[in-house]
Q: What sequence folds into this?
């Protein structure tokens, strides 16, 4: 009955998320449903299990959500993000329209711009380019998703997206973990994804299908687009990458920095300095990027716009982190139930190749798919089982770097099921429906999921990281 309660709870969470209900409200409802079916009293389960872990997650990652959202909003409102996207697409032209859209999204996300901001920045130019090339608009959401939602989100070493940051807190790694495998996975995803979209475009052209007669959310044609130059617009992104690299890989952090706070007997988020270096480094990098973006785009921030941009970014970050924190709180309740031991034993019993990698990949993928969130699903999975996977890896001499990369890449696999918030936003911005465009997005989801197991195979046979 306890296992049935957990499965019922997970199903209801997925169903309500798919129907558009907020997980901030319904994650605790279904967590307490599972708790009640296991005989736990409701109020202690809510305050001591659900809220305790949700608050810990906010304590750990709120600065990254906040600064990331503000950075993205400043890049959007100053026109810097659009300047980058427009230049890339204009340079490659209509002959390489799909590749141009993919690269524009990839450049922005790898530079630290939120994928939600990327959608708004890329769409107007991408739509015009697809129309000029007479490529069906129904393929546009998948092209944007390939650039923004895949390799630069969680594969490529050093990407500052939250999906690449979360594992550092559990495995004591940094965002450059398993760089060769990450690069291989990223290149394969881009190559296969672009091949698929080009093939679909050619098939449409052979049938005589063009851009299509679309009216919903079509961007208005602009005779004169005055945007910052590419050389100027790219500087804040490069700043984030460079400062992040220096603070992570070059700068020597004092290993005793936490000692005064331990002496105060404070409830510290991290047990040691190595678990928070990546978070601290990204905070510093994003602050530098924000300040430079404001300085470079200040002329485009008219009276009151700077305050509105900062406020909008700050408010937007609240929704993002509260969604994820609620899912983490949900996971903590579920993991505390006696029935979960049977589920965790089943997942841990997946011992393909004698390592925890397949177990980890399957678990993270399932939970990302259930929650419709890469960061939420991965946070639940790692909070529940990271210690077991790490102990297993240590027992066979496996580097925690591969655990990091597999968790990160797996989180971006089945997360993009139809109820995923980013997918819903992407389709709405492009003026398309699930019926029009989701099929191609799902193919990318399948490619992304497959690549996790490809890098596991490569690591198992070669040992490279």
A:
């Amino acid at each position: 009955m306890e296992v049935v309660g957990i499965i019922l709870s997970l199903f209801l969470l997925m169903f309500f998320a798919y129907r558009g209900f907020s997980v901030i409200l319904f994650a605790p409802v279904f967590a307490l449903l599972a708790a009640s079916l296991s005989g736990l009293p409701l109020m202690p389960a809510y305050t001591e299990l659900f809220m305790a872990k949700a608050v810990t997650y906010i304590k750990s990652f709120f600065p990254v959500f906040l600064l990331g959202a503000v950075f993205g909003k400043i890049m959007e409102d100053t026109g810097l993000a659009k300047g980058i996207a427009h230049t890339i697409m204009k340079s490659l032209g209509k002959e390489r329209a799909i590749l141009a859209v993919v690269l524009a999204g990839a450049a922005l996300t790898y530079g630290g711009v939120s994928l939600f901001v990327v959608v708004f920045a890329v769409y107007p130019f991408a739509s015009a380019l697809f129309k000029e090339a007479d490529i069906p608009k129904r393929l546009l959401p998948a092209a944007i998703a390939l650039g923004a939602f895949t390799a630069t989100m969680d594969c490529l070493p050093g990407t500052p997206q939250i999906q690449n940051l979360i594992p550092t807190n559990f495995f004591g790694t940094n965002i450059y973990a398993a760089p060769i495998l990450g690069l291989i996975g990223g290149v394969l995803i881009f190559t296969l994804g672009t091949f698929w979209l080009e093939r679909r475009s050619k098939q449409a052209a052979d049938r005589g299908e063009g851009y299509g007669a679309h009216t919903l959310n079509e961007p208005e044609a602009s005779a004169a687009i005055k945007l910052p130059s590419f050389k100027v617009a790219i500087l804040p992104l490069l700043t984030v990458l460079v400062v992040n690299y220096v603070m992570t890989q070059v700068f020597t952090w004092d290993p005793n920095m936490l000692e005064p706070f331990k002496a105060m007997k404070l409830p510290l988020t991290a047990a040691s300095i190595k678990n928070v270096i990546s978070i601290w480094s990204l905070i510093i990098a994003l602050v530098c990027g924000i300040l430079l973006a404001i300085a470079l785009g200040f002329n485009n921030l008219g009276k009151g716009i700077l305050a509105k941009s900062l406020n909008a970014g700050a408010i937007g970050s609240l929704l993002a982190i509260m969604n994820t924190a609620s899912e983490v709180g949900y996971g903590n309740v579920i993991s505390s139930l006696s029935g979960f031991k049977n589920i965790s034993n089943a997942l841990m019993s997946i011992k393909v190749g004698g390592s925890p990698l397949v177990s980890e990949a399957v678990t993270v993928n399932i939970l990302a798919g259930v929650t419709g969130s890469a960061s939420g699903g991965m946070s639940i999975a790692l909070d529940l089982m990271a210690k077991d996977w790490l102990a297993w890896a240590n027992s066979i001499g496996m580097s925690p770097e591969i655990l990091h990369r597999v968790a990160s890449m797996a989180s971006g696999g089945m997360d993009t099921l139809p109820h995923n918030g980013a997918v819903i936003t992407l389709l709405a911005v492009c003026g398309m429906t699930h019926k029009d465009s989701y099929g191609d997005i799902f193919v990318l989801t399948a490619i992304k999921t497959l690549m996790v197991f490809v890098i596991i195979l490569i690591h198992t046979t070669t040992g490279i990281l």
In short: DSSP finds 21 helices and no strands in the chain.
